[in-house]
Write a structure and sequence with these properties.
alpha/beta; D-Maltodextrin-Binding Protein, domain 2; 2 domains; 12 helices
C-alpha cells in the first residue's frame, strides 16, 4: 500500500472519528419530540411529562410531549417507526408494545426491528379489582366462587389479546375456572360497567386504578406481579394463591431503528440518572410505577422476552396470536 493511500485512509478515519465526536457533543441542536401513543391525562402521559421535563434540562433543549392516541397505541408507534432515525423523535412505549404484535392481525411495523430500545423507565403491575358490592374478599374466595359458578363471572377487557385480557386468561388457566370475557373499546367504558355491576371484575393498570381503590369505589384483590409493588405494598400478589402467576406492565423509551448508538447511549444515561432522583422516583411510585433502569441491550432483551411470554400465555389460552 502506497504512503499516499495510507495517508488518505488515516485522514478519512480521523475525520470520521472527529465528526462523530462532534455530532455527539452538539446533539441536540433543536427540540426533541417524545411521542405518547395515548390521549393526554393518563399515567403514561404523566410519566412522559415527568421524564421530558428533566430530560430537557439535561439536554439543554426542549423535550416536547406529543400525544398521538388511537389504535391501541399503534398509531403513535407507527408514526415514530416512520420518523427519521436522527435522535429527535422517540416513543414512550408501554407493555402494549409487547402485546400489540399478538393482539392485532396487522400493524404497519415489526416491533422488534422497527425500533431500538433506549431506556426502561419503570415496571408496574396490573391489579385485579372487583365491584365493591361483589361478595368475595380475596383471591381464594374468588377462585372458590368461580369454581362453584362456572361461566357466571363476567370480566371486562379493553383489548382482546392485550395484557388485561391475557392476564385474565392466565388466571382462568391456573385456577382451572371458566369466566366470561366482556370486551370494551377502552378503559372508561369497562370501569363504568364495573362500578355499575354489569361486570364483576377486571384486570387493570394499577396506576389508573389507584384513585378508584383509594376512594373505595372498587375493591382490589391482588396484583399480577410475583413481588409486592411499592405503589401499593398492602396488595398481595396473586401468585401466593396461584403459583406461577407473574405478569406485569412497563414504561420505556424506544427510538426509530437506525438511531445512532451514541445518541441511544446518551439518552439512556440521562434517563437512568433521572429515575434515580428521589423526587422523580416518588412521583413514579405515586403513578403505580416502580423505577427500573438498565442498559439499552438489557431493555432489548426485556422486550424480546416479554413479547414471547405474552405469546405463550395467548397460546395456552387458545387465543389467536398474530405474532410472526
Amino acid at each position: 500500500m502506497s504512503r499516499i493511500l495510507k495517508f488518505l485512509i488515516s485522514a478519512l478515519v480521523y475525520s470520521l472519528v472527529i465528526s462523530t465526536q462532534a455530532y455527539g457533543q452538539e446533539y441536540p441542536t433543536k427540540p426533541v419530540t417524545l411521542v405518547v401513543p395515548y390521549p393526554p391525562g393518563g399515567p403514561t402521559d404523566n410519566i412522559a411529562r415527568i421524564i421530558a421535563a428533566e430530560l430537557g434540562i439535561r439536554l439543554k433543549q426542549s423535550v416536547i410531549v406529543l400525544n398521538r392516541g388511537g389504535g391501541g397505541a399503534t398509531i403513535g408507534s407507527a408514526a415514530v417507526a416512520r420518523a427519521a432515525p436522527d435522535g429527535y423523535t422517540f416513543l414512550l412505549a408501554t407493555s402494549d408494545h409487547s402485546t400489540n404484535p399478538i393482539a392485532y392481525p396487522e400493524i404497519p411495523y415489526k416491533t422488534e426491528t422497527a425500533f431500538t430500545p433506549v431506556a426502561l423507565i419503570a415496571t408496574s403491575s396490573l391489579v385485579l379489582i372487583v365491584n365493591r358490592d361483589f361478595k368475595v374478599q380475596s383471591i381464594p374466595e374468588l377462585v372458590a366462587f368461580a369454581k362453584a359458578n362456572p361461566g357466571m363471572l363476567n370480566y371486562a377487557t379493553t383489548t382482546t389479546g392485550g395484557n388485561t385480557h391475557l392476564a385474565a386468561e392466565l388466571f382462568s388457566q391456573l385456577a382451572k375456572v371458566k369466566m366470561t370475557q366482556v370486551p370494551y373499546q377502552g378503559g372508561a367504558g369497562a370501569m363504568t360497567d364495573l362500578l355499575g355491576g354489569q361486570v364483576q371484575l377486571m384486570f387493570s393498570a394499577i396506576g389508573s386504578s389507584l384513585p378508584m381503590i383509594n376512594d373505595k369505589k372498587v375493591r382490589p384483590l391482588g396484583i399480577t406481579t410475583s413481588k409486592v409493588t411499592a405503589a401499593a405494598p398492602e396488595l398481595v400478589p396473586i401468585a401466593r394463591t396461584l403459583p406461577g402467576f407473574d405478569v406485569g406492565a412497563w414504561y420505556g423509551i424506544v427510538a426509530p431503528s437506525g438511531t445512532p448508538q451514541q445518541i441511544i447511549d446518551r439518552i439512556n444515561t440521562e434517563v437512568d440518572s433521572i429515575i434515580r432522583m428521589s423526587s422523580v422516583a416518588q412521583r413514579l411510585v405515586s403513578l403505580g410505577a416502580d423505577p427500573a433502569g438498565g442498559s439499552p441491550s438489557a431493555f432489548k432483551s426485556f422486550i424480546h422476552d416479554d413479547i414471547r411470554n405474552w405469546d405463550a400465555i395467548a397460546k395456552l389460552a387458545n387465543i389467536s396470536s398474530h405474532l410472526k
